[in-house]
């Protein structure tokens, strides 16, 4: 009887493990396709992808291990495509300046909302929440008119400035500051600490979880942004990398696979290093204001 229960328990655990692993495997399949496709030759890729090409028939097929692996796509992208690196550094520049601006603008604003209770502050914060819910398509025209009036269209500042004043990082950073006990701040004031000292020495160290979660989410969002540069940037030399990949045609499929893989690496690195802060940000987003 005991042996039967043990076998039944093992069977249930095995079935549960398989059920939980299946979604993970399906999620990893696109990454596997990128890796294997990046080391395939053009003729082999054409054979596999011909059903989805114009005038193609039949069903698409794929091999995990290519028949004739080659690193020609790697050499082409790394040594013969300077345009790729121009757009790569455009993305790095845009994301870095946007996140730095959000820290400069959003952290003091979030600290003020979290610590100082004045008349009308709750209503103003509610307005921030409403602005956070507006998609880019709603604010695109007004942002375009403002950038045009300042003659900033077709410059990186047209993408950077609207993103710097995004309210979502303020919301997440506010959640981090709200976890600081108010008694601790009052005790610091009673000991004679000035407000700027409390902000630098207590607020920033204890509320860094909210700031870092906002930075991680911000990087993942702005590294992949497409609508903002499409709306405000006409010069293709100013485009970020996210707009370069759709420009690659089907006859350069292997090249596109490797370029996609390279674009994925910074996001994976940021996600892996900031995973804990990302979870904290999700928790902060559920805190009551």
Automatic annotation (TrEMBL):
The record's section on InterPro entries has: MetI-like, MetI-like_sf
What is the similarity comment for this entry?
Belongs to the binding-protein-dependent transport system permease family.
Protein name from the UniProt record: Carbohydrate ABC transporter permease
**Keyword S-adenosyl-L-methionine (UniProt):** no
- Supply the Pfam families for this chain: BPD_transp_1
Locate the transmembrane regions by residue number: 12-35, 94-116, 123-145, 157-177, 198-220, 253-272
**Protein's cellular compartments:** Cell membrane
- Top-rank taxon of the source lineage equals Bacteria
Its membrane topology:
Multi-pass membrane protein
**Transport is among the record's keywords:** yes
**Keywords noted in UniProt:** Cell membrane, Membrane, Transmembrane, Transmembrane helix, Transport
The residues covered by the ABC transmembrane type-1 domain are: 88-274
């Amino acid at each position: 009887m005991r042996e039967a229960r043990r076998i039944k328990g093992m069977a249930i655990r095995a079935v549960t493990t398989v059920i939980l692993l299946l979604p993970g495997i399906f999620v990893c399949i696109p990454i596997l396709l990128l890796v294997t496709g990046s080391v395939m030759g053009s003729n082999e890729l054409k054979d596999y992808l011909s059903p989805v090409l114009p005038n193609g028939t039949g069903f698409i097929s794929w091999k995990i291990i290519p028949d004739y692996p080659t690193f020609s796509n790697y050499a082409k992208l790394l040594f013969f495509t300077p345009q790729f690196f121009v757009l790569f550094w455009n993305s790095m520049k845009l994301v870095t300046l946007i996140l730095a601006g959000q820290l400069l603008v959003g952290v003091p604003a979030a600290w003020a909302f979290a610590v100082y209770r004045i008349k009308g502050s709750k209503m103003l914060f509610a307005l921030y929440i409403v602005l956070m819910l507006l998609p880019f398509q709603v604010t695109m025209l007004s942002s375009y008119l403002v950038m045009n009036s300042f003659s900033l269209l077709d410059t990186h500042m047209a993408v950077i400035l609207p993103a710097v004043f995004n309210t979502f990082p303020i919301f997440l950073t506010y959640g981090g500051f709200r976890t600081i006990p108010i008694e601790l701040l009052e005790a610091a004031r009673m000991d004679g600490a000035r407000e700027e000292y409390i902000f630098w020495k207590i607020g920033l160290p204890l509320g860094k979880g909210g700031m870092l979660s906002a930075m991680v989410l911000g990087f993942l969002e702005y590294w992949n942004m497409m609508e903002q540069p499409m709306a405000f940037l006409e010069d293709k030399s100013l485009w970020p990398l996210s707009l370069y990949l759709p420009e690659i045609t089907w006859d350069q499929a292997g090249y596109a696979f490797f370029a996609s893989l390279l674009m994925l690496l910074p996001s994976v690195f940021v996600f892996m290093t900031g995973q804990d802060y990302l979870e904290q940000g999700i928790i902060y987003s559920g805190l009551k204001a």
